[in-house]
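Appendix C reproduces, verbatim, an entry submitted by the partner laboratory led by Prof. M.T., so that reviewers can inspect both the input and the predicted structure.
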Amino acid sequence: MIATAAPRATGSAAWAEALLRSFAEAGYALAEPAVLQPAEPFLDLSGEDIRKSLYLTTDATGEEQCLRPDLTIPVAREYLSSGRAGQPAGFSYLGPVFRYRSGAPSEFLQAGIESFGRADRPAADAEMLALALQAAQAFGLNEVEIRAGDVALFTSLIDALGLYPVWRRRLIKDFNRKISLEQDIERLALASAAPPNEYEGVLAALAGSDRKAALALVTDLMSIAGTSNVGGRTVAEIADRFLEQSTLKAGALPRDALAIIKRFLAVAGDPRDAVAQLRALANDCKLDIDAAVDALDSRVGFMVGRGIDVAKMRFSTAFGRGLDYYTGFEFELHAKGDGVEPLVAGGRYDGLLQRLGSAAAIPAVGFSVWVEAFAKLGTPAASGRPS
């Protein structure tokens, strides 16, 4: 359900009242989605690997249910079913979430904001960061480190390079995995030198094919073999894997593309300087990435307008949060000197609501507040001590 007022908090939970009040004053109504949620959306969006972290049950109809492992998807589902889908609407939340975490409590508090349907993306992004900083202040923390990036910039770069579709999928997937992309690119660039394998004939047959042709060939081969999957992989997954190997065998990542990607990933620091460096890269290498750079430039302008000191931001084109549903701006707030655990984290995820059943993509951006991370710092609000 969607509530219109925050619950009254007392004693050691006074920080909750301050936090939710600040969200309400900014126009974000309190959302209180059910604790028990359909498991399918979480499994579809995060893959079966998340199953071992979920607390699952089955209802009378046989549908899998789970205790909500986070609040973004439940809030998004409520928005889609509210009759306001596609219209601008913003929600705040504060409540328990549940997932297995080795060595840590399986039930913990999550607070945050989700903003849906706003077409003014740069302004909405800037507002999210400003509200995230307010959330940190509600916990008594006025000085934090801002780390930020923009996956849309990387996607724009890869598109501008005109690589094989399989290269595009692989590189964007690796970026979202939050691994060392440069090391992975070097590894992929050497893939064509790999020794022959038992499927060399299939790879040769697929050389220069598209995904549709690869799927047709693999479907025929598996039909002849009398099987519909191998090792748990579907026909489509096997076809994608063969097509990827065929493309890699056909030729390594072009050297000029590799150099451009490395130059792109080296851009870091003040986001205003990053804009200048990216425009220089686009000009030098004749790349059509202007729209993504313009969006970054506009976002920075809105941040400055909200009083955010962007000179203190740690912007990096290589920054990513490791979640594949982000489509643009991403950020984390850290305590000074803490290189691991974020206090607040979020970003733009314009494709998520369509994956949850919306007929069309709906702009969406938000963030989560990790209450226990503030508590570990011993901030006055989170620990219940007077500030």
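The radius of gyration is 23 Å. Additional entries are available on request from the coordinating office.
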